[in-house]
Amino acid sequence: MPTVCIDCRYIGPRPSGIAEVVRGLIDHLPALAPDLHFRLLRHPAHPGALSRAPNVSEQVVAAAANGPATMWWLPRAADLSGVDLFHATFNTMPAGLGMPCVVTVHDIMRLTHPAWCRPGVRGGVERAFYGHGLRRAIRSADAIAAVSAATAAAIASYHSPAAARTAVTLSGVSDRFRPQPPEPERIATLGLSPWRPFVLTVGQHAPYKNQGAALRAFALAFADDPGIDLVLVQRQGAGTRPLERLARSLGIRDRVRFLPTVDADDLVALYGAARVLLHPSFAEGFGNPVAEAMACGCPVVTSTTSAMPEVAGGAALLADPHDPAAIARQLLAAVRDPVQAAAMREAGLVRARALRWRDFAAANLAIYRRVLSSHHRQGIAPAAPSMS
Prior knowledge:
Blueprint: E1 3-7, H1 17-32, E2 37-42, E3 56-60, H2 68-77, E4 85-88, E5 101-105, H3 109-112, H4 120-140, E6 143-146, H5 149-158, E7 166-168, H6 184-189, E8 198-202, H7 211-221, E9 229-233, H8 240-249, E10 256-259, H9 264-273, E11 276-279, H10 288-295, E12 300-303, H11 308-312, E13 317-319, H12 324-336, H13 338-353, H14 357-377
Parallel strand pairs: 1-2, 1-4, 2-3, 4-5, 5-6, 6-7, 8-9, 8-11, 9-10, 11-12, 12-13
Helix pairs in contact: 1-14, 7-12, 10-13, 12-13
């Protein structure tokens, strides 16, 4: 039975979009491929097993997913004996692997638009470090799984020979994101007024998220309507202060609420209560908040660029992310026109139901089988059985 090793260490104590992707993958793969054995590399802080499937084993790896050990000497940090195929799930291809490797690439912004990523000295170090692993993946991986057609196109544009090794494995959305009855008590515990309408923006504080344009567009759209707020869910820190200053200069500081990362139940409640999700990113590999909001019945205004139109599938209103006035017009259409909003909710629910993690897992499985078959035809012997 061939063994596929999947790096699942992003599933840990800290919520992330990549963790959602990996969770969607391993929830469905074992049942889709009973003829394969899956060895999952697990974060030491994860409570208990990642899977109870009979064709799954797990190995706790203490080395950080995004650390030097993963980048340059993973075979020393993890027991990879008996592995026939390795799946690196977060952009970086480890060095020194003795078996074929599939790499999931979420986006390549660090290579194509470094100014959109984390600024400062730390950002420069991250761009150099992650860019190294990403370039290795694009040039050397046996196969690349791109989470959207937009990401696949970006890879092909950056390094055309990689196009032949790239396949689209469109991400999905978890079943926990679904329409729910109003939860005013939960909204109140987040420090918000349960009955006050709000526009919602979700995402880490990074330049590519374009949150300054979200503030400017909100100010333009609702300058004459003090009865609506803007709620930004993001990792709080030094990056919040410039947004607070901008909100003050726009005259809307008292209507902007900053929330730290919230748990999944709180996020579902926020999507359900928001009048609209505003997601004006310059680029996304996929854009989880767009899919999550649609699955919860929340209208979406997002960008005309990158993966956002692909993910929205015609169910959202789109605007040029560089044009706050255009974003403002779409916000007003979603909030002030009940017929428009109702149509967007229904279209969003239909689109979200088409973004299934089972399909995502099946697309990855097709890549595994293709790579395994190719290496078998080339006469490469399978790995020796693992003693673990």
